[in-house]
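[Meeting: bench + compute handoff]

Bench side (C.D.) handed over the final construct sequence. Compute side (W.E.) agreed to return the predicted structure before the next meeting so the bench team could plan truncations. Sequence as handed over:
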Amino acid sequence: MTTLLNITTRRSISALRYSNTLCQARRCKFKKADTHVYLLKAVDGLGERGDIVEVGLGHARNYLVPFKLAYYVPRLRGKAVLPSDWKPNAQTSQDDIAEITPAIWSDTSEIKSTEKVARTMSDPLQRPFIQ
């Protein structure tokens, strides 16, 4: 039987597999403990409302849970227990898009009006006469 060696660590593949399972079961030097959280609100860099994401334990404990942005997902043998009917949010609802669209149009009309005022104030021939 031949034993394959990993060049960087000089350990057999079976020893590497065993160490990886140990790291998943408990916290160790090579693998940091991560936890799964359910997002109650959209968080930049993590996901949208309703997503279940894996984050660092400190990030969840110090920021997400105290500010009620997320709550912990229960774990069983180191793996997150997800509901059987749970699916990640892949689509945005059309209601959100409808709410955002009027705000974009109102902002562009204000920009155009201020650009027109700025042009008339910079041109000496079109300046209003002030007494």
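W.E. noted at the follow-up: The first helix runs from residue 13 to 25. C.D. will use this when planning the next construct.
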